[in-house]
Write a structure and sequence with these properties.
With 456 residues, the chain is mostly helical. 84% of the residues lie in helices and 0% in strands. The protein is built from 17 helices and no strands.
């Protein structure tokens, strides 16, 4: 095994944990915010130039996009865990093998996910109580997204590989460029070509495709550490088993969580297109200000993966404590920010002929119920991604099951009682359930790792 010649793009195994984590997480926060701008650009431009029904149509597919995109993100993030561990262990050849193997596995999963998404979409939208007046636009939008899922999968894969070796800046640069491109294409397709929701979907897929290509070109021209050679291009049994053992549980965890949000969306859909449009706009604003939590999770996956590969378990614990303290501060700031931004931000999504007094109460109900629970939400990302970075995939997946059960129970009760506030409470209930489960699971995992190292 070759263990020399590795150029550390960002060594997260040395230095005080908090500065190392913060330096890594800041570009990720910016990148995640720009990624949210993909969908926000779609919804804002669609809402203002096509209409509130079109906005509701795009919004009604949001949970399905989370299911497809989340599954893609989970499977590719799982594939990159092995890359981070081998990078931390200074195994250069092992890094290249893991990259090539992950690309080949991703091609297989692209074909599978695209096929199932396209074949099952019509029935899924019916199952989710999608209002008839927005059904066709919703179907058109999500079918184009499903057909172009290869762009989403490979952007996530290549950016995950870059983060696995400590590079969080380059994916940010490419993502900013693509976010700007997405807005331009939205305007051209929707305003100039009059393509409606189809134009918004095409703009999203094309922009993500550009991000994927730019990341791949950068890897091969600037990062020889990650670039596989000819001899690496085959499916390796050992690597495939390892990557699938991490990728499938992480993908299922996203899929399970998304299934819960789809049940919640089904409950929201019962209250009509105005409620759906208001909920969509409010959730977009919330997703924007909570991206720091997801970025901290991505950071802890790379951090714990590298330190686990090195065998420094104590440093992982120190990093988790630093991340949790940062998340508490961030959660409080995010809660204040989303409440302040809600009213002016909603105006971006609707044209002047929409009475904001009919929209604001629906949006406020969801936001005000959610912000109280931002701290438990933030801890989920820290605990879950730390466990995944250490190679534990099952317990984080079961955290998704806890979310699903909580959302499903609250959603079913809300539908039975026809209660919109209760439907909005699906998210907070899921966050609390998952936070408790993943927190307890993290304690168990750390004890298990320590026991293994002590007896090794």
């Amino acid at each position: 095994m070759k263990k020399r010649g590795l150029i550390m793009e960002k060594d997260m195994t040395n230095g005080r944990p908090l500065p190392v984590i913060l330096k890594f997480v800041l570009p990720l926060i910016i990148g995640n915010i720009f990624q949210q701008l993909y969908n926000m650009a779609d919804t804002i431009i669609v809402g203002r130039f096509v209409g509130s029904d079109a906005l509701a149509a795009v919004g009604s597919t949001g949970t399905i996009m989370f299911l497809i995109g989340g599954f893609s993100q989970g499977i590719t993030a799982g594939f990159s865990v092995l890359t981070a561990q081998r990078f931390g262990a200074r195994d250069e050849d092992g890094v290249k093998i893991s990259v090539a193997n992950g690309i080949l596995l991703s091609l297989i999963f692209t074909a599978v996910i695209s096929t199932f998404s396209i074949l099952g979409m019509h029935s899924l939208l019916k199952l989710m109580n999608t209002p008839e007046n927005i059904f066709q636009d919703a179907y058109t939008y999500i079918m184009i997204i499903s057909a172009g899922i290869i762009a989403t999968i490979f952007y996530n894969l290549f950016s995950s590989y870059l983060r696995a070796v400590g590079n969080s800046k380059i994916p940010l640069i490419f993502l900013v460029f693509s976010a700007v491109l997405n807005v331009i294409l939205d305007l051209v397709f929707i305003i100039n070509f009059k393509m409606g929701v189809a134009g918004a979907a095409c703009a999203t897929i094309l922009s993500q495709g550009v991000s994927a290509v730019l990341c791949l070109v950068y890897i091969y021209t600037k990062m020889p550490t990650l670039a596989p050679a000819r001899q690496h291009w085959r499916l390796h049994g050992k690597e495939s088993r390892h990557q699938l053992s991490m990728g499938i549980p992480m993908a299922l965890q996203f899929a399970i969580t998304a299934s819960g949000t789809m049940i919640m969306q089904s409950a929201i859909n019962l209250f009509g297109s105005t409620a759906v449009a208001s909920f969509t706009a409010a959730s977009k604003v919330q997703n924007l200000v909570t991206q720091g939590m997801m970025a901290m999770g991505q950071t802890m996956a790379a951090y714990s993966g590298q330190n686990f590969g090195k065998g420094d378990i104590g440093r992982i614990r120190q990093g988790v404590k630093a991340a949790l303290s940062s998340c508490v501060v961030y959660s409080i700031g995010a809660a204040v920010l989303v409440c302040v931004l809600l009213k002016p931000a909603l105006g971006l999504f609707f044209t002047g002929d929409v009475d904001m007094n009919t929209v604001l109460p629906w949006a406020k109900t969801y936001i005000y119920l959610s912000v109280i629970f931002y701290i438990p939400l933030s801890t989920i990302f820290v605990f879950r991604n730390t466990m995944q970075g250490c190679g534990y995939g099952f317990l984080p997946m079961m955290g998704g099951v806890a979310e699903l059960i909580a959302r499903m129970v609250v959603a079913l009760i809300s539908m039975a009682l026809t209660s919109y506030p209760l439907a909005c409470f699906c998210d907070p209930a899921a966050w609390v359930a998952a936070a408790v489960f993943t927190g307890v699971s993290y304690i168990f995992v750390m004890k298990d790792i320590r026991k293994k190292y002590e007896t090794a």
